[in-house]
Amino acid sequence: MEICTVGGYEAVGKNMTAVKVGEDVFIFDMGVSIPALIDLQSDNVRVYTEKQLRRAGAIPNDAVLDKLGWRGKVRAIIVGHAHLDHVGAVPWLAHRYPKAKILATPFT
């Protein structure tokens, strides 16, 4: 088993962890940085692009998974609970993992 800490380990927010078991990778959480989102809201923009969120540091930088060669091996995105720092980036990042199922409770 290998673990890659993508985000959320240096500050609250942008939680994302990848765990490789054999040849399969599982992502736990895809959160946003609440302070970065609040800063963006001061621009009076209501819909954000992935590029805008990345530039603002609001979503995890998952490029490390490309460097490890893990992106195409992601089988599931597992969301622990419905707090934005754990689930908020799913709408912007999940498409980058086309083979992955999103696993969460209906509320999440």
Description:
There is one protein chain. This protein has one domain: Ribonuclease Z/Hydroxyacylglutathione hydrolase-like (Metallo-beta-lactamase, Chain A), CATH 3.60.15.10. The protein has 108 residues and is α/β, with parallel strands linked by helices. It has 5 helices and 5 strands; from the N terminus they run βββαααβααβ. The protein has helices spanning 34-41, 50-55, 63-68, 84-87, 90-93; strands at 2-7, 16-21, 24-28, 74-78, 101-103. It is globular, with a radius of gyration of 13 Å. A 5-stranded mixed sheet has the order 1-2-3-4-5, with no helix packed on it.
Helix content: 25-40%
CATH fold node name = Metallo-beta-lactamase, Chain A
Oligomeric status? single chain
Give the CATH architecture.
4-Layer Sandwich
Count of separate structural domains: 1
- Classified by CATH, the class is Alpha Beta
Number of helices: 5
Average residue-wise pLDDT:
94
Order of secondary-structure elements: EEEHHHEHHE
First CA to last CA: what distance? 27 Å
Proportion of strand residues: 15-25%
Q: Widest sheet: strand order?
A: 1-2-3-4-5
Pfam family, one: Lactamase_B
Protein name: Metallo-beta-lactamase domain-containing protein
InterPro entries: Metallo-B-lactamas (IPR001279), RibonucZ/Hydroxyglut_hydro (IPR036866)
Domain Metallo-beta-lactamase: 15-103
